[in-house]
Amino acid sequence: MTTDSPKPAATAQARPVLDFWFEFASTYSYLAAMRAEALADEHGVALRWRPFLLGPIFAAQGWSSSPFNLYPAKGRNMWRDMERQADELGLPPLARPVPFPQNGLLAARIAIVALDSGWGPDFVRAVYEAQFARGLSIAEPAVLREILGALPCDPEAVLVQAGSEPVKTALREQTEEAIAHGIFGAPSFLTADGELFWGNDRFERAVAWAARRR
């Protein structure tokens, strides 16, 4: 089971690769995902979409919830910042999902399947739109089934595959890989030469760094 995005067409010189680590519960991962491909293409960089889970990372820090919940002032600032940035990017008005953070486990498992099947980025964006533009619960199988219904797949077959042991193992191993790389939040971007950039506001720098290392 591989979670790489579809490989770009062969060229005289291979495009540098940037790993895009995202978590479905992450607000700023939403902003990054909605502009990821255009930004990468602009710099001639190939993206690898890498879903993972922040829960184990937060638990290791002794956190029982998102730091945006644990520190209310930080949370209030984040939501207002998200509203501003969504407007600047031309995205729909921000909808705050309830509860927050959402349980993105099933969505992440489906993303493992989707990225192995060629329609992963479309699925990822649709999940983020459902959560942060429509305020829907992405923990609900019915919501994910609706999203899958608009994609080139058999929704029921995908849901069955997402519950299989190989997919569960793939997501667990990918989360362990994120931890091994020192990733502590989402979105994070990892270049081929091991440089780690954290946050949507570091996306441009990550892409530029990757592009220079051809």
Keywords:
single chain; 214 residues; alpha+beta; Glutaredoxin; 4-stranded mixed beta sheet; 10 helices; 52% helix
CATH topology term: Glutaredoxin
End-to-end Cα distance: 28 Å
- Poorly predicted runs are 5-12
- Mean pLDDT across all amino acids: 93
Radius of gyration: 17 Å
Going by CATH, the architecture would be: 3-Layer(aba) Sandwich
The major β-sheet equals:
4 strands, mixed
Tally of separate helices: 10
The gross shape turns out to be: globular
Q: Proportion of β residues? A: 5-15%
Give a verbal description of the structure.
- With 214 residues, this protein is an alpha+beta fold.
- The chain has helices at 27-42, 55-60, 67-70, 72-88, 105-117, 120-132, 141-149, 155-162, 165-180, 203-212, and strands at residues 17-22, 46-51, 188-191, 196-198.
- A four-stranded mixed beta sheet has the order 2-1-3-4, sandwiched between helices.
TL;DR?
With 214 residues, the protein is an alpha+beta fold. The chain has helices at residues 27-42, 55-60, 67-70, 72-88, 105-117, 120-132, 141-149, 155-162, 165-180, 203-212, and strands at residues 17-22, 46-51, 188-191, 196-198.
